Amino acid sequence: MSSTETPPALYAAREPVFPRRVKGTFRSLKWVIMAVTLGIYYITPWIRWDRGPNLPDQAVLIDLANRRFFFFMIEIWPDEFYFIAGLLIMAGLGLFLFTSALGRVWCGYACPQTVWTDLFILVERWVEGDRNARVRLWNATWDFRKFRLRMTKWVLWLLIGLATGGAWVFYFTDAPTLLVDLVTGQAHPIAYLTMAILTATTFFFGGFAREQICIYACPWPRIQAAMMDEDTLLVAYREWRGEPRGKLKKGELDPGQGDCIDCMACVNVCPMGIDIRNGQQLECITCALCIDACDEVMDKIGKPRGLIGYIALKDEAEERAGGHPKNLWKHIFRPRTLLYTALWSAVGIGLIVALFIRSPIDLNVTPVRNPTFVVLADGSIRNTYEVRLRNKHGEDRPFQISLSSEADLQISLEGTEQMVVTVAADQTQTERVYVTARAGSPAATEDRTAVRLWVEDLESTDRVSVDTVFNGKGQ
């Protein structure tokens, strides 16, 4: 190559994808899922739930200030993070289950990137027209009409992005109060910053990046193969039926050609811009819109549906030979998916059981180590403990603190002669407790003595305990 020649590009520039509108079973299913998921996301912060006078009335609230999570009748405290971990494990197992059974069905129907991109494409189609009109507008020179359509579309996208960011921040504080503060300019700067970031990312990801996020940013396409096997149902082109391709001539198919008339309908409706006839590809999100498009064409030319459809690798040889594929449910309910289902159910049942058996009171004990012990005037040894009492009830409760040990030990509460304290509703309260051993007693002379501190709710008689140690002088 001479020095005057331009070196070849190392990568191809992105070709914009303009998916065509399509009607069918899978497209209708995507509309329903989009409406349900967006409805849940935008409406949930506004649902009210009466928990009493001392608790917030927002049904779903992530209360970072008080480090609690409210979900309707459920309240999760910081020490109960295992519930959140369990839900994340269930989400992961559910993703494995659906991928094992139906490939990237999550990506095609319920992934936020897919849902918001679908919404943005819907707005784009409403403003600029269907695929051919959008392609012509893309290739047209800038004039007033193109500027007007683009600005209209971008403003609508920004409003969607703003609603997305606004809905997100509403989950972290009382939604009606925050809305007033946002409108009047009195909200915390973090709220405005969060909304600005989510508005910008939603605008960019759903409006411009689109399939690029799925192809390059998302790690799932690169690990999904580990979740699938020869029984996994995937969207595929039955090339043994469709090839060789050929165009319709005078409204009729050539007897020597396959059912595919190379109409490109499957390509034109694909939101990823791929040709499913080239086989399985990393970019395919299993949205099945190509099935709707192809079935529509097959109906028009009088051919049976299913040229593009769900098929398992195990059935390919049988179908090539003219046989019938295995029943759909036999592909779905197989040892692998049943194992995922069992694990998913086990985690879910465990979380439900843990939710119902958890104590409404809690106790945490921290020995004060500076100093480890104190020698009083009469020679007795005293240890100090910070006791954190947690009342998860919706009303104030009297808590009694006590001690159990094989040694002769005395317990007292700082600031009072009583061992009963009142803990406010849904609050944590710290008290200082003293444990004393008589001079010369085994606990005073030994290095360590096992001690158990108890707290009892005097109204409900619920009790919890924590094991700790009493430090003596040692020998």
Entry summary:
By secondary structure, the chain is α+β, with helices and mostly antiparallel strands. It has 17 helices and 14 strands. α4 (112-128) crosses α8 and α6 crosses α8 (189-209).
Task: Characterise this structure.
This protein is an alpha+beta fold. It has 17 helices and 14 strands. The protein has helices spanning 25-43, 82-102, 105-109, 112-128, 131-139, 144-170, 175-184, 189-209, 211-217, 220-223, 239-242, 265-268, 289-301, 313-320, 328-332, 335-357, 442-445; strands spanning 60-63, 68-71, 74-76, 233-237, 308-312, 361-367, 374-375, 381-391, 397-404, 409-413, 420-423, 427-437, 448-457, 463-471. Strands 6, 7, 8, 10 and 12 form a five-stranded antiparallel beta sheet that branches. A four-stranded antiparallel beta sheet has the order 11-9-13-14, with no helix packed on it. It is elongated and about 115 Å long. The chain starts with 24 loop residues before the first helix and ends with a strand.
Q: What best-fitting shape do the alpha-carbon axes yield?
A: elongated
Number of DSSP helical runs: 17
Mean pLDDT: 89
Helix content: 40-55%
> Structural class, judged by helices and strands?
alpha+beta
Rg, Å, rounded = 33 Å
User: Unreliable stretches, pLDDT < 50, 5 or more residues?
Assistant: none
Span between N and C termini?
A: 89 Å
Major sheet attributes? 5 strands, antiparallel
Q: Tell me the total number of β-strands.
A: 14
Strand % is 15-25%
